[in-house]
Amino acid sequence: MKRILSSQAEKYLDQTIKVEGWICSKRSHGKLVFIDLRDMEGLIQVVFNPSESKAYEIAKKVKPEWVVEIKGRVSKRPEGMENPKIASGNIELRAEEIKIYSEAKTLPFAIDTDGYEISEEKRLRYRYIDLRRQRMKRNLEIRQRVIYFMRKFLIERGFVEVETPILTKSTPEGARDFLVPSRLHPGKFYALPQSPQQYKQLLMISGIEKYFQIARALRDEDPRADRQVEHTQLDIEMAFTSQEEILNLIETLYIALVKEIFPEKKILQIPFPRITYKEAITKYKTDKPDIRENKEDDQELAFAFITDFPMFEWHEKEKRWGAMHHPFTKPQTEDIEKIKKYPEKILAHQYDFVLNGYEIGGGSIRTTNLDVLLAVFEVLGHKKEEIKKNFAHYFEAFSFGVPPHGGIAAGIERFLAITLNEPSIREVIAFPKTGDGRDLMMNIPSEVTKKQLKELHIRIESKNK
Ligand code: ASP
């Protein structure tokens, strides 16, 4: 017999169907036993009558979260007993048979609440149970709808989604790399991508003029409460483009997306305001201004683009210049002497995408003049020879015909946390890590065996040494 989902059951009125799922709750009324069964689509009420004695005896025994199969007849609920809150609320199932697939221990916490009242450590430790919660299911579903919308929108406009490697080479994007030791090549390492930055630029040289990817970016950053060591971003690159074209594309995409998936939200200003970095700092004292008038109103979305960032920023602690975005960003001048002499004066073709006071994306037009790129790297403190060695592939690629190009990356999680009014990005990630990069469920990072270390040519120095 085919399984019927709770939401579809009403279509089978007066027929016998099979449902499968988890026991959500159980109660007795006189001689009858009522069970609410939960499947991926919702709940269905099942009634056990002593006249079906075998099923009835089992029903008396089952407990919440046991997984069962039930066969029964779909019947209209008695008048006045309908439940308009659930899809199957007009009917109930009169049980004829019940089979137990698996029993379940008492859950570590309740799943019929929104869960904010439970300690997050506990929720993360038992994340697979936490995800049974209605709110978490909704978040994952909306996450998928957002990503699906982005894919569809871009594919319809001629973009090609290309997967780029996870095992790659260290690229200076401003964070520390996660390194992966090579077993086959002793002493050598891969780096996990801080973003697909180099690959997407190389794809422009390949003639994939419109690239996108729902990409994972991995950054070994210092602990911070609402930060993840891995996050997902909508990564875009275009050839023969301009800043205006990229910003317009993003604007059109997000307006359409909000209209379709978050129709209850109001976008504060269309077109999204374009504010220069200087203006933002002067007027709002931040480069991610929250331009909402009423910041309590969680139905309002205030998007903005911040443009014309400085190319470099001074790292006082390390006494060196860093790139405000990344070294591949095009400075607003090609005057190499000026770049090297007055780095503090150089602006970049760089833009950030901001929503309600959070940076939700950023990108730039890229340098295609290699002399300029070299000058930028020199300001950042790299030696010419070292750059030419580390980026040999990049410099070589640029000698084979490079189109002007630029792109952007927009974070998926922060956008979702804001639109879903969630307090943290962890609420929109199925299996998040803590702010200091631990997975409390899998208990990672974890130690590995001596044999594994040996194969990788790695020796751990004891901490006390
Ligand atoms: N790679 C950049 C980032 O991940 C985005 C870009 O410049 O396109 O922030």
What do these coordinates show?
The protein has 2 domains: 6-102, Nucleic acid-binding proteins (OB fold (Dihydrolipoamide Acetyltransferase, E2P)); 125-450, BirA Bifunctional Protein, domain 2. The strands form 5 sheets. It has an 8-stranded mixed sheet with strand order 6-9-10-19-18-17-14-12, sandwiched between helices. Strands 1-2-3-5-4 form a 5-stranded mixed β-barrel. It has a two-stranded antiparallel ribbon with strand order 7-8. Helices cover 26% and strands 26% of the residues. The chain is built from 13 helices and 19 strands. The protein is elongated. The chain has helices spanning 53-61, 120-125, 127-130, 134-156, 197-205, 243-261, 277-284, 336-341, 370-379, 384-390, 392-397, 412-419, 450-455, and strands spanning 16-29, 32-39, 42-48, 67-76, 91-102, 160-161, 179-181, 189-191, 210-218, 230-239, 266-267, 274-276, 300-301, 303-307, 312-315, 320-323, 350-355, 358-365, 405-411. The protein is an alpha+beta fold and 465 residues long. The structure holds aspartic acid (ASP). Aspartic acid (ASP) binds next to strand 18 and strand 19. Aspartic acid is lined by residues 195, 197, 217, 362-364, 407-409.
Keywords:
single chain; 465 residues; alpha+beta; OB fold (Dihydrolipoamide Acetyltransferase, E2P); BirA Bifunctional Protein, domain 2; eight-stranded mixed β-sheet; 13 helices; 19 strands; 26% helix; elongated; binds aspartic acid
